[in-house]
Amino acid sequence: MDLRFTPEEVAFRDEVRGFCREKIPAEIRRKVSEGRGLSKEDIVTSQRILNAKGWAVPHWPTEWGGRDWTTVQRYIYTEELFQAAVPLPQQFNCYMFGPVLATFGRQDQKARFLPRAANLDDWWCQGFSEPGAGSDLASLKTRAVRDGDHYVVDGQKTWTTLGQHADWIFCLVRTDFEAKKQRGISFLLIDMKTPGITVRPIITLEGRHEVNEVFFDAVRVPVENLVGEENKGWDYAKFLLANERTGIARIGLTKERIARIKRLAKEMPAGAGSMWDDRDFRARVAGVEVELKALEITQMRVAAKKGRADSVEPDPASSLLKIRGSQLQQAATELLLELAGPFALAAPVRGEGTPGLPNDLPGGFDWVDAAAPSYFNNRKVSIYGGSNEIQHNVIAKGILGL
Amino acid sequence: MDFDLNEDQSLLRDSIERLSADLYPSLEKRMAHAKAPLGFPEGNWAKFAELGIFGLPFSEEDGRFGGGPVETMLVMEAVGRHLVVEPVLPTLVLGATALRLGGSAAQRARYAPDVIAGTLRLTLAHTERQSRYDLFDVATAVRRTGEGYVLNGAKSVVPNADSAGMMVVSARLSGGRRDRAGIGLFLVPADAPGVSVSPYPTQDGGRAAEVAFTDVALPADSALGDPEGGLPLLERVIEHGIAALAAEAVGSMETLHRLTVEYLKTRTQFGTAIGGFQALQHRAVDMLIELEQARSMALYAAMMVETGDAQARAAALAAVKVRINTACRALGQEAVQLHGGIGMTMEYLGAHHFKRLAMIATQFGDTPHHLRTITDAEDGLLAA
Predict the structure, then answer these.
(1) Pair (B39, B73) in one structural domain
(2) pTM for the complete prediction?
(3) What is the ipTM of this complex?
C-alpha cells in the first residue's frame, strides 16, 4: 500500500498542470473560476485545444482518440482540469454519447460521429428526462413508431442542458408499448435540424438560459440512427450512467473554489481587518476542507479499484461520491455568498456590472456579481444526474442489500 | 498510488483478525475479560505478543520485523472491530513510538526486547488536571540532581497505568507552565519509589488511573532525547496515537454499521422488516458515508503520520481527528436510534461500540481543539 503518487504520476500531473495554465486562454479560465456563464465559443475553443493535444477524450477506446491511461492518470487529469478552472470537455459528447456509441454502435456510426464529437464539430445534448419522467426515468412516454426506413418520433423532453447549442440529441424513446417499462426503450440519435423539433428555453432561477424543453412533432428519424438493438436502450443508458462516475464528485472544482475563497477573504474588509481574521469564518472553511480531503481519498479508492472499466452496472460507490461531492460544491457556493456579504444583494445588469457599486472590491466585481447566482444555480447539483435521494436508494439496495 | 496490501500485510491482517475474533466471540466473553484484575487476562496479552505485533514499531536491529503506519492501522482496526480491551494502543503505539523516535540505541536495546516479548507494557502519562488537550501545558516538574533527575507532580486519566511496567511521562525542566520549551519525556518505572497509581474503570470497558509522583528519583539516562526540547517528540507520539485511534474507530464503526443493517433486515414491525422503510434506509446509507469517509481519513493518517514536514503533518492529523470525531458521534448515535430500545441496553454489543466511539472522540483532542489547530495554521489545512 502506497498512497503517494509515483514519480511518473507526479510528472504526468505537472505536464497536465502546465498545459492547462499555458494553453487554455486565461479569460475562459477566469470565467469558470468566477462562476460566470461560458459562451458556446468558449467551450468549443477550450475543447479543441485539448483535442489537438489528444486530451479531449482520453477515456475513449484508443482507436477513437482515447489514451491508454491508468485510472490514476485519468483521475489526475480530471482533477487538474478542475483546479486550473479549465472547462471539462463537453460532457454529453465526451462522457455520455461517445462511450455509448464506441461500445454499442455500428462501425459506420462510430466513423461518422466520434471524431466530430471529440472535436466538438457536433454539439450533442441529452434527451432523457420528460415532464412525467424524472427520478422515474423508465416511465418515459416519447414514442418512436416505425414507418418504413424511418421512426416517427412524438413527445417531449425537458431539462435539456445547453440544447440551444446542439446539433444532435441522443434520446431515449419508447419503441415497444406492450413490454415492461424498462424493456421497451430504444436509444436514438436525432438531428436537431429535422423538421418538427422545437426548442423552448427554460430560464433557471438565477436568470440564465442553461436548460430547455424539446418538443417532437412527427419527427422522421432514419432507422440507421438507432444505436445497438431496438428495445435495449435502457441497458445503454445504465452503461452511460456508469461512465459518468469519472469526476462526478467534482472535488477539484470545489478545491479551486475554496482556494479562491481563501485568497479573497484575506482582501475582503471586515471589522478591523479582513474576513480571514474572523476565526468563525475560517472554521467553516476548514470544515469544508476536512470533508473535501476525506472525499478526495474516497474518490481515489474508487478510482484505484481495478477491473471495473467494462462494468455495465453503475458502481454504487459512485453514488456516495455524488451525494457528498454535490453537498460540498453547494457548501463552497454558500461560503462565497457569505464572503460577498451585503454586496451579494445587488443584481447586476448583464454585461455592465451593477451601476454605482464601489469599484475597488478585492478581486474585482465579477465574482461578487456571480456569488448569489452561483449559489442559486448550484442547488441543481443535488438534483441532477439522479437526485441525492435516488442515490441513497441505489446504495441502500446495491451495497446494504436493504 | 496503490491501496492494495502486500503479502506480509495481508497475513498480518488475517492473523490479528483471527486472534481477536477467537478471543472475543461474544459480548459476555468481553465482559469477563474486562473483569480480570488488570482489566484484561494476562494470557491474552501473551497471545498478542506471540503474533509478533509488539515488534512492529521497532526496526530489525532492535529485534523484530518492523512495520509502519499501515501495519499499525491493520492491528488497530481489528482492535476496534472486536472491542479488544487489552491495552494495545498504550504499548504498541504510545509507549513504543516514544521509545522508537526518542530513545537512544541503548535505551531501545534495553526495553524493546521485553516489549516485543510481551513482558513489558508501556503507557504515556501526559494529561494533567488543567491541561485539557494542550500538550505543552505541563506543571509536572523535574529537576536535575547529581545522579539524574527528581520528578514531582501528577498526571490524569493515564491509560492502563495499573498494568504498565513503564510510563513515558511529560515533565518540565524549565520555563512556565504553558511554555513550549522546557519539556522533556522521561521513562519512569511504575514500581519506582514515589510513584502512586490510583486506577479506575473507564466508560468504554477499559482502565485508566490518576498517577502521582513524589520525589521520584530517575537516572540520567531516563530522558528520551532532549530533556528540555521534548515537545516535538510528544506531538509526534500523539499524532501516531490519532492515526491509531482513527483505525480503531473505523473497525468499531464497521462492526456497529453491520450490526445495524442486520437489525434492520431482521426486526419486524407493522408486519414487515423495518429495513423496507425508506426513512430508515437513507439513515443507514448516511451511516455508511460516515464510515467510508472515516476510513479514507484513517488511510490519510497512515499516509501522513511519517511525513517529514511537521506543519503539514500536524494539520493533516488534526483534520483526521476532526473527521473521525464527527463520524464517531454521527454513526454511533444513528446506530442506537435505528436499534430503538435494544440499543439502549447494557446487554447489547452495539451499545458498547457506541460508548467506545463516544470516548474515542474525547481522546487526543476533541473537535474544537483540532479545528483550532487547522484554523490557526496560516493558510488553513490544504495548502499542500
Answers:
(1) yes
(2) 0.93
(3) 0.95
